[in-house]
């Protein structure tokens, strides 16, 4: 009986340790060298959701989402807007810690791109985005509507506000079921020099 109990306990400890190490590995894999970052850098993410797969199917890149990096109160955060990740089921522009943006269940790949401009210009783009925190997610994907934003629209308008069109006129004409309109997808705003490009798994 003692040997059986010991065997069960040993197996339990082994499974727990293995699971913990796998979890720890995923968390460590999401670490980014923040010393190389600058306010206003674009952080692209390949998500793991069905919606993310849909976006990457439409787009020519491997990325489904984008936000703006900014540092305040001594911590790096991401200003972005995305459906289905709010605690209160209200999707808005938000600022959250980079660790939340890179949660393993949300993120498979990342790419960080620096727009070619002076740092004070990039900072002004960040300020534009921060002032939009709390504005609803644009589920109509209407770029003419300034009362709502979707992710690529937010970063595009933030830089357009300071005189830089990071889309350089690129658009995707999306025709799916009853949805027919030009949209900005991640590859449309991927202008600049790649700072970090890594697979987080």
TrEMBL record:
It comes from the Bacteria. InterPro entries: Papain-like_cys_pep_sf, Peptidase_C92. Gene3D superfamilies: endopeptidase domain like (from Nostoc punctiforme). Pfam families: Peptidase_C92. SUPFAM superfamilies: Cysteine proteinases. This is Permuted papain-like amidase YaeF/Yiix C92 family enzyme. It comes from Prevotella intermedia.
